[in-house]
Structures are given as structure tokens and as C-alpha cells.
């Protein structure tokens, strides 16, 4: 299982932005696309307590959506979290 897990849909602009940010950092991630996958949507909702996408997990930590991950990046907290989890 990947250290970073994204629950996304293909064309959601926030999902695209989350993938781009992680790609720019060279971080590998598991992209669990929800289209037609009610089992994955139920899994995401159970893990996060949310119904919107993306939902982002780094290690065991639920980061939230793209705005939450971007806020971590602006505060300089994203890289240390990724490093601590072994993602980079």
C-alpha cells in the first residue's frame, strides 16, 4: 500500500491540482479513482467522514482535501509530513 493515498475523480479540478502538486514534488501515490466504484466511495467516506473529493491521506493522517494540502504547503509543513511518513 502506498504511503500517500488520494481518493479522486478524473476531472475534478481540485483532484487534478492535488496530483500536480504531488507530481511536482516527485511523490508517488495511489490514486483511487471513484468513478463507478461505490465500494471505494464508501471506503473514502468511512475513512475521512467526508463525501467530497479529493480526500488525501499521508500515512495514517487524513490531510483533507486539496485546499488543506495546499495550506500545509504554504506553511512549510507538507514536506516534513511527507518525509516523516517515508513518502520522500
TrEMBL record:
Q: Which InterPro entries match?
A: GLR_AS (IPR011767), Glutaredoxin (IPR002109), Glutaredoxin_subgr (IPR014025), GRX_bact (IPR011900), Thioredoxin-like_sf (IPR036249)
Residue stretches making up the Glutaredoxin domain: 4-63
Q: List keywords of the entry alphabetically.
A: Cytoplasm, Disulfide bond, Electron transport, Redox-active center, Transport
PROSITE patterns annotated for this entry?
GLUTAREDOXIN_1, GLUTAREDOXIN_2
| Cellular-component GO terms for this entry | cytoplasm
Q: Does the keyword Cytoplasm apply?
A: yes
Q: Name one GO molecular function term.
A: glutathione disulfide oxidoreductase activity
Task: Tell me the GO BP annotations in alphabetical order.
Answer: cell redox homeostasis; cellular response to oxidative stress
Q: Which domain of life is it from?
A: Bacteria
The record's section on NCBIfam families has: GRX_bact
Record-stated family: Belongs to the glutaredoxin family.
This chain's function reads: Has a glutathione-disulfide oxidoreductase activity in the presence of NADPH and glutathione reductase. Reduces low molecular weight disulfides and proteins.
Q: Which PANTHER family match?
A: GLUTAREDOXIN 2, GLUTAREDOXIN-1-RELATED
Question: What is the recorded name of this protein?
Answer: Glutaredoxin
**Organism whose genome encodes this protein:** Acidihalobacter prosperus
Amino acid at each position: 500500500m502506498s504511503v500517500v493515498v488520494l481518493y479522486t475523480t478524473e476531472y475534478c479540478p481540485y483532484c487534478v491540482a492535488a496530483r500536480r502538486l504531488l507530481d511536482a514534488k516527485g511523490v508517488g501515490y495511489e490514486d483511487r479513482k471513484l468513478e463507478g466504484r461505490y465500494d471505494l466511495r464508501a471506503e473514502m467516506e468511512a475513512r475521512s467522514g467526508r463525501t467530497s473529493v479529493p480526500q488525501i491521506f499521508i500515512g495514517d493522517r487524513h490531510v483533507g482535501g486539496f485546499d488543506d494540502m495546499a495550506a500545509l504547503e504554504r506553511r512549510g509543513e507538507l514536506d516534513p509530513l511527507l518525509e516523516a511518513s517515508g513518502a520522500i
